[in-house]
Every structure is written in structure tokens, then in C-alpha cells.
Specification:
By secondary structure, the protein is α/β, with parallel strands linked by helices. It contains 13 helices and 12 strands. The structure holds glyoxylic acid. Glyoxylic acid binds next to loops. The site of glyoxylic acid has 6 residues, from loops.
Length: 370
């Protein structure tokens, strides 16, 4: 029988938690929808919990690990991104942390695509016309037109799981693709997509021949009609290829004045002040954002400027916010299920207790054989 593990969860994740209760775990769930204060997380950890369930809103660093010294065995994060968890601190305290990669890949890529589509085709402004009874006539070009997506060129910045899924969606829309990744290039995948594109053309499914290739960052920005960002947030010191403010005044100016930028990765990858300026001064055509430097987006953010509202879509960190993706208790379908499984793997010593073999553990490097 399991030892009675104690868990503190900083948020509810629905039905998936019943798996823990059925196994006799003592589970306390923070009851508010907002994030708990860090001081409360520390207090709970200090009280001796074995596992902590966290979201991307919770700062997990040395203070937390110190409070859980000798008792905290795992941090299970319900998100693929984990820039809120200080990896070096987790490693120092030898606490494995897990994430929920893969199960949100398609949902996030789909949202990234749809968000750019909504921006380019002016759907937000168009619906306002209808709702505000400003739709007075059908006219070939009044009151405004949008831009097609089909057949255009998109820059895929970051070709990890979500970037590759985005490529799949874009291929279906007969887009050409310029790919860039600061750390890793998946040529097998890109070649397979090119074969698919060629087949679609030879079999008459696509009228034009389309193409995909890896190029340097600047080339991707200069030559694309759309730019979609899929890199993790890496601050200087965390990687030899940091992504903090990868999009800034200099790089935004490389984009075509008609191009659209989409960001579903992490807010700080884009310098928001520079982006607001780029939109006001029309260096680029528009932006669709799901993530921000500070979340929720502050009331005084320059991105809220009404003069750029027609070309700036602002989503509330929503890309994975779909029913199955977020809540399915099956670890192969839902983030909730995968989060719970990651926690169980560590606490119940699955995989023979070898943390390096546990599929959802991120910081495996801290547990290698010495
Ligand atoms: C959401 O942003 C995630 O990282 O899962």
C-alpha cells in the first residue's frame, strides 16, 4: 500500500485529482482561482508536503526548495513551459519537476494558426461592424479588406514540438515556410513536409508548388508575411541562445511592413514596448498575442492603445485552453492527467525509481549516475 503522500496543489485541475484521492493521497487544493501568494506555497511546503502541483503562475525557486528540504520530493507542473521553475535551484536541491509536454501541442499550434488568421482576415473588426450595426452595404473593398493566408509565406521561429505542429497546419493552407531554430533543426521533419507538399502539387491538390526550408533568423523575418513564435523563454545565463526579447526594435524592423506577428510562446520573448511602437508606427502589419511580459496584461499596457486595436489581437494565455487538452484525466490526452501521472511516477518510484527514465521529468540531468 502507498504511504499516505501529502500533496498541495496551487490550483484545481478537476477529475484527474480523483486518481490521487483513490490512491489514498492526502490532497489539499488551493480553493481560489487566482494564484496563491508565494508565502502560502512556502508555508505549505514547510509543513512537509511530499508533492507540489503548480501552474506557470507560481514562482518556484530556492526559497521554496529550502522550505521543503528533506521532505519535498516532486513538483508537478501543469504546463509545458516551466520558466517559472528555477531549474538550477531544483537541481541543487535534487527535486525532480515534471511538465505536460505533447498533450497540448496540437491545441496550441491550432490556436496560434487561428489567432493569426483572425488577425489577417480582420475578423474582430468585421464582427464589430455587424454587432454595432455599421454593416450598411456589401461593397468590393469598403469599409476594409483583410489579407489571405493561403499561399503566403510564414516564418516558423522555433521548431520544437509546437513549431512542428504549426508547420503541419500551415502546410494544409498551402503556405511556404521559412524555419528558424536557435538550437535545434529537424531536417527529417522538414523533408517529409516538402515531400507532402510535392505530392499535393503533383496530384493537383495544391495549384502552386510550395516549399519549406531552414534559414537564418534575419532571412526568415525579412521574407515572411507571417511570423509565428514557438521558442521557450530562455534568459541570458540560462542558455547560449537566449530568447528574451528576441523580438525587439531591431528585429521587428526587419519584418515587412505588411507582416503579422503571432506569439503563443512566452511573453518576454517579445519586447512589448517595442512591439507597441512597431504597431503605432506601422513597421509591421499587426500582431496577435496570447502571452505577455506580465500576466494578466496590465491595465496600462501600451498594447491596449485603442489606436492599434484593429491590428492587435490580445488573447488571455488561452492557446491550450480547450476541454480535452486541459482537463482529460488520461495522461495521453490531457494536461491534468499527465500532471498527475508525473507526480505519481516520482512518488511511487515507477520506472524502478530511476528519475532519468520517467518521461515527464524535465531536470533529468540532476539525477544521472555519478
Ligand atoms: C502554457 O503556456 C504552457 O506552457 O503549457
Amino acid at each position: 500500500m502507498n504511504k499516505k503522500f501529502r500533496i498541495f496543489a496551487t490550483c484545481d485541475i478537476g477529475e484527474a485529482f480523483s486518481r490521487l484521492r483513490e490512491r489514498g493521497y492526502d490532497l489539499e487544493v488551493y480553493p481560489q482561482p487566482q494564484a496563491p501568494p508565494k508565502s502560502l506555497i512556502i508555508e505549505k511546503v514547510r509543513s512537509g508536503v511530499d508533492g507540489l502541483v503548480t501552474t506557470l503562475r507560481d514562482p518556484i525557486d530556492a526559497e521554496v526548495f529550502e522550505a521543503g528540504k528533506d521532505t519535498l520530493k516532486v513538483v508537478a507542473q501543469i504546463a509545458v513551459g516551466f520558466d517559472n521553475i528555477n531549474r538550477a535551484d531544483a537541481n541543487r536541491y535534487k527535486v525532480p519537476f515534471t511538465h505536460t509536454a505533447d498533450v497540448l501541442t496540437e491545441a496550441t499550434a491550432e490556436f496560434a494558426f487561428l489567432m493569426l488568421g483572425m488577425l489577417a482576415r480582420q475578423m474582430w473588426s468585421a464582427e464589430h461592424l455587424t454587432r454595432e450595426s455599421q454593416w450598411g452595404f456589401w461593397h468590393p473593398y469598403l469599409p476594409f479588406l483583410g489579407d489571405e493566408i493561403t499561399g503566403k509565406t510564414i516564418a516558423i521561429i522555433g521548431t520544437g514540438r509546437i513549431g512542428l505542429a504549426m508547420i503541419k497546419k500551415c502546410a494544409g493552407f498551402d503556405m511556404n515556410m521559412l524555419c528558424y531554430d536557435p538550437a535545434y533543426e529537424n531536417h527529417d521533419y522538414i523533408n517529409a513536409i516538402q515531400e507532402l507538399m510535392d505530392l499535393r502539387h503533383t496530384r493537383g491538390i495544391s495549384k502552386e508548388k510550395t516549399w519549406i526550408k531552414y534559414v537564418p533568423f534575419e532571412t526568415a523575418l525579412r521574407n515572411s508575411d507571417f511570423v509565428s513564435v514557438h521558442v521557450p523563454l530562455l534568459r541570458p545565463g540560462e542558455s547560449s541562445t537566449p530568447t528574451l526579447h528576441l523580438f525587439n526594435e531591431t528585429t521587428l524592423k526587419l519584418m515587412k511592413p505588411t507582416a503579422f506577428l503571432g506569439n503563443t510562446s512566452r511573453g518576454p520573448v517579445v519586447d512589448e514596448k517595442a512591439l507597441a511602437r512597431a504597431l503605432r508606427e506601422k513597421w509591421i502589419g499587426g500582431a496577435a498575442l496570447d502571452v505577455y511580459e506580465k500576466e494578466p496584461l496590465p491595465a496600462d499596457s501600451p498594447l491596449r492603445d485603442p489606436s492599434i486595436a484593429d491590428r492587435c489581437r490580445l488573447m488571455p494565455h488561452f492557446a491550450s485552453a480547450a476541454r480535452i487538452t486541459r482537463l482529460d484525466p488520461d495522461p495521453n490526452k490531457g494536461m491534468a492527467g499527465r500532471c498527475v501521472q508525473g507526480l505519481i511516477d516520482v512518488l511511487e518510484s515507477n520506472y524502478g525509481g530511476d528519475v532519468t527514465k520517467m518521461p515527464y521529468v524535465v531536470n533529468k540531468e540532476a539525477f544521472g549516475k555519478t
